[in-house]
């Protein structure tokens, strides 16, 4: 009798793009995160809150949700961690991200998360602290450090121009991968 060594399934990470802008700076940072994780020993599923096929705030049984919503909730339930990229407009959690997190809260419990906030420098810190508190205190999510904070000056020609922001993004994603394996 001989045994076949079982292949180890890579941990699943869900990346959440939380901007409603069609090609905004949050999306640029999000796409860079996808690119960075492509070479890591993880499986990645992306969720874009602009997807109009995702249901929010209703009381139907989950079997009645759209196929896209059921797939999203299944991926979040199976994931070990998530990356959330959020635009910041007024030192608060964006409405789209807040609504999304409220809807998927049960699937987030016990997960680990890496965060990225994009907005003007003056509003980044308070908004990121609010997001960390919401995730940790309300939804039971552990947040890895560092939190990525990028201002419009961090970008040029649809790329991250600021080397410090790029380094922090790499460090934050490395911490997420390490915490998820």
Report on this model:
- By secondary structure, the protein is an alpha/beta fold.
- It is built from 5 helices and 8 strands, in the order E-H-E-H-E-H-E-H-E-E-E-E-H.
- Strands 1, 2, 3, 4, 5 and 6 form a 6-stranded parallel beta sheet that branches. A two-stranded antiparallel ribbon has the order 7-8.
- The longest helix is centred in the C-terminal third of the chain and has 19 residues, at 121-139.
- The two termini are 31 Å apart.
- The mean pLDDT is 90.
Lay out the secondary structure:
Blueprint: E1 12-17, H1 25-38, E2 43-48, H2 67-78, E3 81-87, H3 95-108, E4 112-118, H4 121-139, E5 142-143, E6 148-150, E7 155-156, E8 159-160, H5 163-180
Helix pairs in contact: 2-3
Pick out its properties.
globular, alpha/beta, 19% strand, 181 residues, two-stranded antiparallel sheet, 43% helix, 6-stranded parallel β-sheet, 5 helices
Characterize this entry briefly.
Helix content is 43%, strand content 19%.
Q: Which class of secondary structure composition applies to the elements?
A: alpha/beta
Rg of Cα set: 17 Å
- Share of helix, binned: 40-55%
Oligomeric category? single chain
Distance between the termini: 31 Å
SSE pattern: EHEHEHEHEEEEH
Give the biggest sheet.
6 strands, parallel
């Amino acid at each position: 009798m001989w045994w076949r060594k079982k292949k180890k399934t890579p941990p699943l990470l869900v990346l959440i793009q939380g901007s409603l802008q069609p090609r905004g700076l949050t999306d640029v940072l999000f796409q860079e995160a996808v690119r960075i994780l492509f070479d890591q020993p993880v499986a990645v599923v992306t969720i874009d809150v602009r997807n109009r096929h995702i249901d929010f705030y209703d009381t139907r049984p989950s079997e009645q949700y759209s196929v896209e919503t059921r797939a999203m909730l299944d991926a979040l339930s199976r994931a070990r961690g998530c990356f959330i990229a959020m635009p910041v407009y007024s030192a608060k959690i964006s409405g789209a991200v807040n609504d999304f997190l409220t809807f998927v809260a049960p699937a987030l419990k016990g997960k680990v998360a890496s965060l990225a906030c994009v907005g003007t420098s003056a509003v980044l810190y308070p908004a990121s602290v609010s997001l960390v508190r919401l995730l940790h205190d309300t939804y039971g999510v552990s947040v890895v450090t560092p939190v990525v904070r990028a201002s419009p000056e961090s970008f040029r020609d649809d790329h991250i121009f600021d080397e410090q922001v790029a380094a922090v993004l790499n460090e934050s994603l490395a911490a997420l991968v390490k915490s998820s394996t």
